[in-house]
Amino acid sequence: MNIAVIGGGAAGYFAAIACAEANPACRVTIFERGAAVLEKVRISGGGRCNVTHACFDAHELVRHYPRGSRELLGPFMQFGPTNTVEWFEKRGVQLKTEADGRMFPVTDDANTIVRCLQNAALKAGVALRTGARVERLVPMPDGKWQTWLTRADAPLVFSKVMVATGSSTSVWNMLRDLGHRIVDPVPSLFTFNTKDTRLRDLSGISVQNVRARVPEARLEAQGPLLVTHWGLSGPAILRLSAWGARQLHSRGYRFSLEINFAGEQEEQEVAAVLNALKTNAGKKSVPAHAQFGLPLRLWQHLTAAAGISEGTRWADMDKKSMAALVRQIAAAAFSIAGKSTFKEEFVTAGGVSLKEINFKTFESKILPNLYLAGEVLDIDAITGGFNFQAAWTGGWLAGHAMGKIDG
Predict the structure, then answer these.
(1) Structural domain boundaries of the chain?
(2) What's the rounded Cα separation, in Å, for the pair 52 and 397?
(3) Which CATH number is 2-186+345-403's, of 3.10.310.30, 3.30.70.890, 3.50.50.60, 3.40.50.10860?
């Protein structure tokens, strides 16, 4: 069988390798429109490649996918993070787990993963064609596929075709023309822009645990927060952006964000802690003594926003000042006006409708012998190795399905 894999990224490479290893009689070719392959793998995780996440229970794992959680449960039971770790270890790549659960190669070098995939493909006999843009796919009466490349005089014919082109608008349009429904793509995993003066000159400062809410969209997330040059980032913000991708897009990325800098403590608890300081630390300066583990500079900006002057002592705090400070700590409102891409890891919500995919094989339900995996589907996850895991899983299952002679 001739097998075409369109897209030289994580899902495409994994599918090609899986297919060629499962059935050495298959002639598998990867078509990549660019000059290089596995570029997203190479730059991910700051050049270290966040391969997967140390979340080995499929039911827990799917909770990290705003879109695709229900559909991925079965596939993750077939090939999940445990299998990913074993797959790379079998090919000489050891992975390590960091404190937050992210898994990287012990070399801390994404090129380790790139070389592993390239070597595995070469060993399995997978052919690679770069600079090869697929313009058109045409289903044939016998179930095979004509594959037309740019400037080609005649099509190539394949028994089965896999599309793993990521968030490519041109490919989505091609699949739409073939009858697939495309869920309109919108950005996911983005940071929030704000010019709030409370954050001025605080770029690089982080808070270990906050609760962040977008009240009008009924979104809430908890985790670390990072102040950037343009506004707010960090896991708590990225979770909001992923789960609220469509709602926030519909609002033009203009909305009110509420942050509780005290994390799990409610306003009443925050008030109790601060009121106790009137007695226990009455002579100390309020702006000079940060509470709730907050960085001093951020604390000073919050106290200033509450109208507390530099020389104010805890014993001097009246009810009005105390209430204002409680609000700044436990319910600080920020006006968000725009977004920024999260590093190089651009992820979209949208793609081929999941209702049209058989998730046992990742084959199209409406176009036989056409397989799809990775970000070409309406699947995305929060940061932490979860998007790559979906790519490995989809690629592995599709590859094995394509390698079966009985289809």
Answers:
(1) 2-186+345-403, 190-341
(2) 17
(3) 3.50.50.60
**Phi, psi dihedral angles at 225 (to 5 degrees):** -125, 140
In the numeric block, which tokens belong to residue 405? 């002679």
Residue type, 381: A
**pLDDT band of 406, cuts 50, 70, 90:** low
Is residue 383 within 8 A of residue 188, CB to CB? The reply is no
**pTM higher than the cut 0.70:** yes
pLDDT exceeds cutoff 70 at 343:
no
405 confidence band (pLDDT: 50, 70, 90):
confident
